[in-house]
Write a structure and sequence with these properties.
The complex is a heterodimer of chains A (about 230) and B (about 325). Chain A is α/β, with parallel strands linked by helices and about 230 residues long. Helix content of chain A is about 35%, strand content about 25%. In chain A, the strands form 2 sheets. Chain A has a 6-stranded mixed β-sheet with strand order 6-7-8-3-9-10, sandwiched between helices. Chain A has a 4-stranded antiparallel β-sheet with strand order 2-1-4-5, with helices on one face. Chain A is globular, with a radius of gyration of 17 Å. Chain B folds into 2 domains: about 190 residues, no CATH class; about 100 residues, Alpha-Beta Plaits (2-Layer Sandwich). Classes of the chains: A alpha/beta (about 230), B alpha+beta (about 325). Bound molecules: adenosine-5'-triphosphate and magnesium ion.
């Protein structure tokens, strides 16, 4: 439920590589958008800037009117608690159970253990993993691991949900079911941005899409328009 | 819906500047975080028991050395205090010295503020002591008893307090030598001076080595915590991404520091106890021969307490150092 604005954002790395050049885009509160382009187009960089992991060289990024670049290290964590992130390689903690992995954001946020339990079970229910709470991540299939990652991203009821190649190594059928999950969360009001280069999948979703080409925004529109 | 080009950024209004504020901390959060950190520490340590024990030993040795020096220093000071034959002078009178002259010198010394005790051994007493001491040698005692006059002089044994310097003693000696009745004045300070310079040496050495070893303990702990962090970089990244504050990320590692520091201090105390019991017999023999107090002092509760505190502080310092070095890099490497 948050509006995101990129205002002429440029990201140049120390080695001179310009990953994003003068990118301007607006994402309405409660929208769901795909971010696509070839490998190296700057999709991950776009998301990294939005999470505040990296800072823009030029330009500004506003979330609900607040310049993310000006949050500072002390306020940044509180912003991140409202942003759920799903990675291509899920980043689950191998020494923790599925339950503890999903519970992590809630425990950071000091929810009571009772609330933690009910919310974690709710999130695992959504990704159809109830009953596997006490397994370790290594005991799950790739698709299940990815779903645990999604459960962790949404368990804190974030206002923004970002995903970087969430279906990268999943079979097409699983990929579609995961995309459906994202649109379900979107229907609950979450602003969703999904980076993916899986054009076929994106087209099948009929969603607004931002195209990046070598760091420049080339096109914005519904995939069906193209 | 996404729109092309030049979107008007919404101005940062008063309300939006209040977005994602840093909330007031709550005590229950504090306890919950610490409880989590402690259980994390135990979990991690029990997983890596071997390397944890190794760290304990390293920190323990680094702490034991300055602690041992401190003990040695305490005991040398104790020796200094407990030494029966305090610094002092022996004043030997002429054989023919008048008893009134002797009393005059005795009074003079007693008025001196630095003297603690003045003990007179008159000629007869000296002879008796000499006879007793040489009782084995029959020829000597018979020779002495045949003498009509006592050949031994009267003497004064003067002990002075610890603040008296060698120079002051020497000045006092010269002053006494000017009296006609005084034959010789002998300063007894050699053994004491040695002891004092030894104490001083040990004290300085203790400070220098103490600082070096403390630094060593900090670095060892820092290195261990850094290893622990490296083993958990992934966790750091995830924590940072889901919005853990810097303090929340740092906390488990500070507990590692506490754990390693306290463990190291316990190992150091054990090492010291073992060492003390090992050197007790030879030390007793050595000190006993000098008529010195044998009890090793200072290895007591306050000493152990400060050792633990020291370990704790050094461990936490090491941990903070390591965390400072590592967390920034880890956060940059997030995702
Ligand atoms: N830390 C970095 N230092 C220098 N250059 C970088 C860095 N990170 C990314 N780049 C460069 O920036 C460009 C964009 O990278 P980015 O990861 O955003 O691409 P992407 O669109 O996510 O690609 P992919 O689909 O393969 O994930 C690439 O050319 C990459 O080499
Ligand atoms: Mg990428």
């Amino acid at each position: 439920m948050s509006a995101i604005t990129f205002d002429r954002v440029t990201k140049r790395f120390d080695n001179g590589q310009e990953a994003l050049s003068e990118v301007s885009a607006e994402f309405d509160s409660g929208s769901m958008t795909f971010l696509t382009g070839h490998s190296g187009a700057g999709k991950s960089t776009f998301l990294r800037l939005l999470i505040g992991v990296d800072v823009a060289t030029r330009g500004r990024i506003y979330v609900d009117g607040v310049d993310i670049g000006k949050l500072g290290t002390r306020r940044m964590p509180w912003y991140r608690r409202e942003v759920g992130v799903v990675f291509q390689d899920h980043h689950l903690l191998p020494e923790h159970t599925v339950f503890d992995n999903v519970a992590l954001p809630l425990r950071i946020n000091h929810l009571s253990e009772r609330e933690v339990t009910s919310r974690v079970r709710g999130a695992l229910g959504r990704v159809e993993l109830l009953g596997k709470e006490h397994l370790m991540p290594t005991q799950l299939s790739t698709g299940e691991q990815q779903r645990v990652g999604i459960a962790r991203a949404v368990v804190g009821k974030p206002k923004i949900l970002l995903a970087d190649e969430p279906t990268g190594n999943l079979d097409p059928q699983l990929a579609r079911s995961i995309m459906k999950l994202f649109s379900q969360f979107n229907e609950l009001g979450t602003t969703v941005i999904i980076a993916s280069h899986d054009i076929g999948l994106i087209e099948s979703m009929q969603m607004p899409t931002v195209y990046l080409l070598e760091g420049r925004m080339t096109q914005v529109g519904e995939t069906s328009d193209v | 819906m996404s729109k092309e080009a030049n979107p008007r950024p919404k101005p940062a209004t008063q309300a939006s500047r209040k977005q994602w504020p840093i909330p007031k901390r709550r005590l229950s959060w504090f306890f919950a975080d610490h409880q989590r950190a402690v259980s994390e520490t135990f979990k991690f340590v029990s997983l890596k028991l071997g390397s944890s024990l190794f760290v304990w030993l390293l920190v323990g040795i680094a702490l034991a050395l300055p602690a041992a020096l401190r003990l040695a220093q305490l005991n040398f000071v104790a020796l200094d205090d407990g030494w029966q034959g305090r610094p002092g002078l022996s004043v030997y009178f002429q054989v023919a010295a008048d008893s009134s002259d002797i009393v005059e010198v005795e009074n003079l010394l007693q008025q001196n503020s630095s003297t603690i005790e003045v003990r007179l051994t008159d000629a007869d007493q000296a002879l008796r002591e000499f006879m007793a001491a040489s009782a084995d040698s029959e020829s000597l005692t018979t020779a002495l008893s045949t003498l009509s006059a006592n050949p031994l002089p009267a003497s004064l044994q003067v002990s002075v307090n610890n603040q008296v310097t060698v120079d002051q003693l020497a000045a006092l000696r010269l002053q006494l030598l000017q009296k006609a009745a005084v034959d010789d004045v002998v300063i007894e300070f050699t053994w004491l001076e040695r002891l004092r310079s030894l104490t001083q040496l040990i004290e300085r050495l203790g400070w220098i080595l103490g600082c070096l070893f403390a630094l060593g303990a900090v670095l060892v702990t820092a290195a261990s915590v850094r290893l622990a962090i490296d083993g958990r970089l992934e966790e750091l990244r995830v924590l940072s991404l889901v919005g853990a504050t810097r303090a929340q990320i740092r906390r488990p590692f500070v507990y590692f520091g506490v754990f390693y520091g306290l463990g190291g201090a316990i190992v150091a105390a054990m090492l010291l106890a073992i060492t003390l019991s090992a050197i007790e017999t030879p030390l007793t023999a050595l000190l006993g021969s000098y008529d010195l107090p044998v009890q090793v002092r200072g290895f007591d509760l306050p000493f152990l307490g400060s050792l633990l505190l020291m370990g704790l502080v050094l461990g936490v310092m090491g941990a903070l150092l390591a965390v400072k070095q590592r967390i920034r890099g880890a956060q940059e490497a997030i995702y």
